[in-house]
Design goal:
The protein is an alpha+beta fold. It contains five helices and seven strands, in the order ααββββαβββαα. The chain has helices spanning about 5-20, 35, 95, 145-155, 175-185, and strands at about 45-50, 60-65, 80, 90, 105-110, 120-125, 130-135. The strands form two sheets. The chain has a four-stranded antiparallel beta sheet with strand order 1-2-3-4. The chain has a three-stranded antiparallel beta sheet with strand order 5-6-7. The termini are far apart.
Length: about 200
């Protein structure tokens, strides 16, 4: 049995806890799709977040195209520029990719050639051509890369299901790292891809 002093302490503690219990919010996030990127319609496989135009705001890239278990129709992979808080994103797809359609499974934005400008790798599937778009300038306008040059840069029909960019691994670690730094691409000196492709 609790003694009067302990009973008072327990009662005081329970009252203090009851009064200090924070209210749990019922909505932690609000769906802002309609006021930011609006309605989309393609089959999206992956999304990448990166600052493409150097304004310090995260932009969105969508890897789109095809069906799940069969090729389906190629579709545009989408690029949306973030215009800042409270403003809708701007669709810059044709400014970046032109009219190119993809069966894309993954999209990555990194500086592949070390020039300080973000480049875009669109990896495709079903034996279709993957593309490396090399950024040509900063600011509000991201220039399109020479896709013919990028095609020959990849060396062959590069058709991975997904791409991961990171540190080189395996027994060819040093050679691969040097090749990637010099060429700015994800492959060995003999042209075969080696960076987390699967």
């Amino acid at each position: 049995m609790l003694m009067p002093s302990r009973w008072c302490l327990a009662l005081g503690l329970s009252l203090a806890l009851a009064q200090s219990t924070p209210t749990v919010p019922t909505r932690l996030w609000i769906d802002a799709t309609a006021t930011t990127i609006g309605a989309t319609k393609e089959w999206t496989n992956k999304v990448e977040v990166a600052d493409l135009n150097g304004d310090g705001l995260p932009d969105l890239l969508f890897a789109n195209g095809g069906n799940y278990s069969d090729p389906g129709r190629p579709e545009p992979s989408r690029v949306f520029f973030n215009m800042g808080p409270g403003k809708p994103f701007v669709d810059k797809t044709t400014d970046v990719f032109g009219q190119t359609l993809f069966l894309s499974r993954s999209i990555k934005a990194r500086d592949f050639n070390g020039d300080g400008i973000t480049d875009i790798l669109v990896s495709t599937t079903y034996q279709t051509q993957s593309h490396l778009y090399v950024g040509v300038g900063k600011g509000a306008d991201v220039g399109r890369a020479d896709t013919e040059g990028r095609r020959s840069g990849l060396g062959y029909d590069f058709s991975p299901g997904k791409v991961g960019i990171g540190k080189p691994t395996g027994r060819h670690h040093r050679k691969d790292a040097q090749a990637r730094i010099v060429k700015g691409l994800c492959h060995r000196p003999n042209g075969h891809p080696r960076c987390a492709v699967g």
